[in-house]
Amino acid sequence: MKPLVIVGAGGHGREAHDIAVAVNEVNPSFELVGFLDDALSPGDPAAPHTATILGGIDWLESHAVAFVPAVGSPELRRLIVQRFPHHEVADLIHPTATIGSHVSHGPGLIMAAGSRVTHAVTLGQHVHINVNSTISHDCRVGDFVTITPGVHLSGSVTLHDEVWMGIGSSAIQGVTVGARSVVGAGAAIIHDVPPDTTTVGVPGRPAHHREDTE
Ligand SMILES: CC(C)(COP(=O)(O)OP(=O)(O)OC[C@H]1O[C@@H](n2cnc3c(N)ncnc32)[C@H](O)[C@@H]1OP(=O)(O)O)[C@@H](O)C(=O)NCCC(=O)NCCS
To answer: Exposure winner among 23, 63, 81, 179, fewest CB in 10 A?
Structure first.
């Protein structure tokens, strides 16, 4: 059993904990040590009861245990990983998730219940695929990409690093979504999306460019 801490005790982190529990029921793998969360104090009565709040992220500096960053923000996930490059990172793949043949993935993969990756898909590091999302053949998904529930990618879609796909969004075959772009809830991507762009609607159109507001 691998001692494991989950970084982030928000909704996403608590879901990740549930996945680890589900994995253990089928194949005992993890000793669930607790959560790390900068926004909660150890023993915080508001904290979730599924596992102990051990402290903030600094706790990892003095503990050489495996961790999984379970926060939805791609950028925050990257910052956490960059801070602890020598710690072991775990994958959390729910027993009901499925992975086809010729799939490669980096460390820190989280696949929630019912998510499916089919044939010849490449996933970068710390990709999160939430419940009932599907990634079809030959897709290329970059590092720190977040795929929220009910997202569907057709074949040969490319998502560059740190893309965030909103709930129920989809992409037709062959399109590319540029790095750090956000796809809004329910959007249908039918054309390539440039980097740093928020796209909404059906068909997907730019809603707002971050450079406009920064
Ligand atoms: C796309 C999103 C990130 C935009 O957030 P934002 O940058 O704060 O944008 P705003 O709310 O200011 O909206 C900008 C414009 O886009 C429209 N818009 C926002 N989200 C939209 C969506 N999902 N579909 C269609 N239009 C949308 C707004 O109506 C607004 O248009 P208007 O100026 O004509 O009124 C957000 O609305 C969204 O869809 N988030 C996804 C949430 C989600 O999937 N959560 C899953 C968690 S597991």
So the answer is: 63
CATH topology of domain 2-83: Rossmann fold (3.40.50)
Residue whose CA lies nearest to ligand 1 atom number 46? 167
To test the pocket of ligand 1, the residue of 200, 209, 210 to mutate (highest count of ligand atoms within 8 Å of its CB) is 200
- Where do the structural domains in the chain lie, given as residue ranges? 2-83, 92-196
Q: Let me know if the fold of 2-83 is the same as that of 92-196.
A: no
Q: What is the pLDDT along the chain (214 residues), one digit of tens a residue?
A: 999 999 999 999 999 999 999 999 999 999 999 999 999 888 776 666 678 899 999 999 999 999 999 999 999 999 999 999 999 999 999 999 999 999 999 999 999 999 999 999 999 999 999 999 999 999 999 999 999 999 999 999 999 999 999 999 999 999 999 999 999 999 999 999 999 999 999 999 999 655 554 4
Phi and psi dihedrals of 146, rounded to 5?
A: -110, 125
- Does 92-196 carry CATH code 2.60.120.230? no
**Nearest alpha carbon, ligand 1 atom 35:** 207
- The CA distance from 53 to 67, in Å, is 14
| CA 214 – ligand 1 centroid, Å | 18
Residue 147: which of 174, 173, 177 has the closest Cα? Answer: 177
107: closest CA among 95, 124, 122? 124
3-state secondary structure of 202: coil
Q: Which atom of ligand 1 is nearest to the CA of 165?
A: 44
